[in-house]
Amino acid sequence: MKVLELLILLTLLVAVGYVVLKLTLAVLKWLAVNAITGLLLIGILNFLGITHIQLNLINFLIIAVGGVVGVFILILLSLI
Questions:
Q1: What is the pLDDT of residues 29-76, one digit of tens each?
Q2: Dihedral angle over CA of 37, 43, 45, 49, nearest 10
Q3: Residue 74, exposed/middle/buried by CB under 10 A (0-12, 13-18, 19+)?
Q4: Which one, out of 1, 20, 47, 63, has a CA that is 20 to 30 A from the CA of 29?
């Protein structure tokens, strides 16, 4: 009976670990796509001279979490 309980525990631990890993990778993929999209948009806008937003850690985090919406928030904040 002890072996069966241990086997069930290990199976559940593997299942929980798989779900946690899958969710973590999904969130990281979402952040990477948002960051790349936002950085491309900021680069184009800075190159065209429409806005001049510096890329520092705070701005990068806003872009990574917000994506295109984060870029527009930074543009609005730079106009104030």
A1: 998 998 899 999 999 999 998 888 888 999 988 988 888 999 999 999
A2: 180
A3: buried
A4: 47
pLDDT beyond 90 at 14: yes
- Domains in the chain: boundaries: 2-79
CA–CA dist 69, 71 (Å, integer): 5
Decide: 54 and 78 in contact? Cβ < 8 Å. Answer: no
| Confidence at residue 1, expressed as pLDDT on a 0 to 100 scale | 74
For residue 46, how far is the Cα from the chain centroid?
A: 22
